């Protein structure tokens, strides 16, 4: 056989629910050079597309914080806790749509669904400019949460379909890089729009411009984001077989047959790892909701004695540290064994130091306190690693979608709680809010330590009961859960 040839030998369909065409992938013979070529094509066509979308999502989500520095609160006559509720209600919408979104992601082409969702969120973002009171803004923020709910869980599912287990953390970190880039450029964009001389209020221009860009990008996604390796438009038929064959070793399910399996949903709801991830996500996102997502951080920086526009600029450097942290995550996940959970703990410890600096330093030391905010930058990078734990450690397509929905419900819960701790009466110091941030980080570390211990204990139990892991390639296409596969071992 020639070196670059691909052999697909007809074989009987293995027992279980396996499509006969997909079963041929089990006997596809590939070379390392072919796999590398296909991986490069996947990276080139998927990662930049998802990264740009994630950048837009972050920018669109935090426009409320920047709009506040451009007089949104005074123009809409927001008082008391109304601004906090406008921050929190976004996550009520996100939570409301998480479960329906997980069902739709299984039943319909996921690439098309995500593209439509992005276009709709762009439309909703544009309508923010028409709001004239608290009720209107509250409604717009809720609908924005609904339309954005599909993106991160959907990207996680796509990453799990296209990449090997060991490749997933670095790829998730790369598309999450869009979040860090947005952290840098969104403040600069808001600053530039704030200096435009127009009869339209600057905060309205911010929503209109970003909304139109997002609608256009959503339409683009409908045509370019693939639904699965078997339907990737940028791969040839032979390359699609290689793409499927590459991920056989994952044993977490390449695709489903459009069937939502109730038994897998029950498996998810009774799995200890799922609930430990939920606990982590709630705790981690208490700080995220109120502080590091810029809903209140630019206000706090303004309280250090900087002007409104300069506060927008000073929100940007934290993103640079986040970019550096993502580089470290990519390196660690590639070269260091059992590094995922430990890396998550390390970046949260950085943020913990930052909060302590903000609390401990006197008001006169405004640059020292700003360094505290700067150190908060990396902690959000633990979020894509937690998503990679789902794609690597949760088997079964329906179970994976269910656990993703559980994680994002927890994400919403933390983000709802967070803004409510930032009391209007305590602005701009927000003493209660900073204490809540500190507690959230401490609890997140606690749940991660428990998760690490659970994975270690479970892997050792399986080794004792079943012996060393000996993968059966057919398991990847049987759509079994991680608890149904004796050879499955959890990635730490």
Automatic annotation (TrEMBL):
Q: What is its main location?
A: membrane
> Major facilitator superfamily (MFS) profile domain location, by residue?
46-460
One cellular component (GO) term of this entry: membrane
UniProt keywords (A-Z) are:
Membrane, Transmembrane, Transmembrane helix, Transport
Q: Which locations, inside or outside the cell, does it occupy?
A: Membrane
Q: How does it sit in the membrane?
A: Multi-pass membrane protein
Q: Name one Pfam family in it.
A: MFS_1
- Transmembrane parts of this sequence: 110-130, 142-163, 175-193, 205-225, 312-334, 341-361, 367-390, 402-422, 434-455
Q: Name one GO molecular function term.
A: transmembrane transporter activity
Similarity-based family: Belongs to the major facilitator superfamily. Allantoate permease family.
Annotated protein name in UniProt: Major facilitator superfamily (MFS) profile domain-containing protein
């Amino acid at each position: 056989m020639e070196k670059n040839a691909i052999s697909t030998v007809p074989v009987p369909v293995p027992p279980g629910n396996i499509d006969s065409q997909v079963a041929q992938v089990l006997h596809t013979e590939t070379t390392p050079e072919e796999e590398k070529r296909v991986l490069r094509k996947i990276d080139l066509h998927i990662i930049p597309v998802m990264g740009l979308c994630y950048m837009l999502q972050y920018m669109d989500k935090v426009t409320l914080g920047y709009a506040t520095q451009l007089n949104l609160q005074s123009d809409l006559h927001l008082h008391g806790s109304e601004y906090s509720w406008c921050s929190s209600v976004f996550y009520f919408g996100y939570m409301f749509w998480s479960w329906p979104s997980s069902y739709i992601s299984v039943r319909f082409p996921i690439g098309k669904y995500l593209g439509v969702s992005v276009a709709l969120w762009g439309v909703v973002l544009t309508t923010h400019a028409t709001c004239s009171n608290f009720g209107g803004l509250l409604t717009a923020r809720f609908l924005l949460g609904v339309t954005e709910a599909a993106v991160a869980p959907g990207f996680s599912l796509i990453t799990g379909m296209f990449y090997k287990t060991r490749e997933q953390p670095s790829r998730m970190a790369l598309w999450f890089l869009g979040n860090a880039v947005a952290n840098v450029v969104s403040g600069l964009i808001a600053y530039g729009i704030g200096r435009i001389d127009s009869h339209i209020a600057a905060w309205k221009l911010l929503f209109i411009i970003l909304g139109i860009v997002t609608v256009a990008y959503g339409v683009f996604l409908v045509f370019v984001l693939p639904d699965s390796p078997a339907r990737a438009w940028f791969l040839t038929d032979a390359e699609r077989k290689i793409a499927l064959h590459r991920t056989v070793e994952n044993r977490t399910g390449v695709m489903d047959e459009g069937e939502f399996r109730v038994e897998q949903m029950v498996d998810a709801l009774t799995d200890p790892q799922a609930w430990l991830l939920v606990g982590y996500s709630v705790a981690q996102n208490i700080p995220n909701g109120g502080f590091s997502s810029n809903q209140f951080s630019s206000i706090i920086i303004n309280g250090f004695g900087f002007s409104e526009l300069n506060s927008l600029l000073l929100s940007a450097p934290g993103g640079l540290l986040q970019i550096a942290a993502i580089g470290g995550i990519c390196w660690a996940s590639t070269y260091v064994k059992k590094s995922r959970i430990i890396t998550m703990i390390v970046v949260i410890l950085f943020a913990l130091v930052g909060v302590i600096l903000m609390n401990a330093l006197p008001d006169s030391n405004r640059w020292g306190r700003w360094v505290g905010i700067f150190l908060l930058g990396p902690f959000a990078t633990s979020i894509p690693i937690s998503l990679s734990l789902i794609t690597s450690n949760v088997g079964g397509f329906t179970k994976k979608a269910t656990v993703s929905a559980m994680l994002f419900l927890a994400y919403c819960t933390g983000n709802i709680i967070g803004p409510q701790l930032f009391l209007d009466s305590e602005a701009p110091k927000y003493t209660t809010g900073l204490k809540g941030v500190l507690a959230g980080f401490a609890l997140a570390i606690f749940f991660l330590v428990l998760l690490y211990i659970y994975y270690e204990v479970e892997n050792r139990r399986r080794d004792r009961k079943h012996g060393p892991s000996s993968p059966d390639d057919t398991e990847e296409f049987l759509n079994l859960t991680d608890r149904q596969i004796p050879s499955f071992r959890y990635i730490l």
